Amino acid sequence: GNSVTQMEGPVTLSEEAFLTINCTYTATGYPSLFWYVQYPGEGLQLLLKATKADDKGSNKGFEATYRKETTSFHLEKGSVQVSDSAVYFCVSSGSARQLTFGSGTQLTVLP
Amino acid sequence: DAGVTQSPTHLIKTRGQQVTLRCSPKSGHDTVSWYQQALGQGPQFIFQYYEEEERQRGNFPDRFSGHQFPNYSSELNVNALELDDSALYLCASSLGAGTSRLNEQFFGPGTRLTVL
Fold first, then answer.
1. What is residue B105's DSSP assignment?
2. Which of A99, A100, A101, A106 to mutate to test the interface with B (most CBs of B within 10 A)?
3. Cys-Cys link to A27, which of A31, A34, A53, B11 (CB 3.0-4.6 A)?
4. What is the DSSP letter of B23?
5. Contacts of B58 in chain A (CB under 8 A)
């Protein structure tokens, strides 16, 4: 079955620092890939997605590129803000439509 | 437009009891999926309902069962509760499980179940 491995946290950065959260996946076939975010006290929200190899998903300054050759979907942001503090989940979805989540990475951004 | 709603918000039960959690999907959505999120972990897929039938199931025992109603709302039932069932239960809705299109899943705020 599908599985997702993401960088363990917690990650603590200063405001305006560069962010990378690593994510790799294993899957049968070519899954769609997502990053979901869980802000404190809020529900899970889709941050960005990519449905095929070499697609780049982007939203709110975050980017991730679907790399088939390295089975990776790393999340990046050039300059993080305090408001980006949240838990980030790398997620895959195959033809069965069920979402497979990584274990989550807690990000704290300090002013 | 109301998003995905879940009830109750919190629930405390004792071992061996049974529990029912409820979910109303986002307007226009016909597919409901349930996930279990243990503390500090990512959500784990339980099952998915479409056209009032269970279409996909994750690695959960038969104690976990569900139902979907004609208005697309759904229930998750857990029998013979165990301590390890303590978790946040998330409902997600989407459109078109019966089509070839992959659609975004929208999540509700969850029900926090504590088993004592």
1. P
2. A99
3. A31
4. E
5. 98
**Which chain A positions have a beta carbon within 8 Å of B92's beta carbon?**
44, 99
Reported as a single tens digit per residue, the pLDDT across A40-63 is 888 899 999 998 899 999 999 999
Question: pLDDT, tens digit, for every residue of A69-101?
Answer: 999 999 999 999 999 999 999 999 876 678 999
Is A20 near chain B, with CB under 8 Å?
Answer: no
Query: CB–CB of A97 and B42 under 8 A?
Result: no
Scanning the structure block, which residue is given the tokens 């208005």? B71
Task: Answer whether B46's CB lies under 8 Å from B36's CB.
Answer: yes
Cα separation, B4 vs A43, whole angstroms: 10
Determine the average pLDDT of the residues in B47-66: 94
**Which chain A residues touch B90 with a CB distance below 8 Å?**
43-44
C-alpha A94, offset from chain centre: 16
User: Are A51 and B48 within 8 A, CB to CB?
Assistant: no
Rounded to whole angstroms, how far apart are CA atoms B54 and B66? 8
pLDDT of A6-29, one tens digit each? 988 899 999 999 999 999 999 888
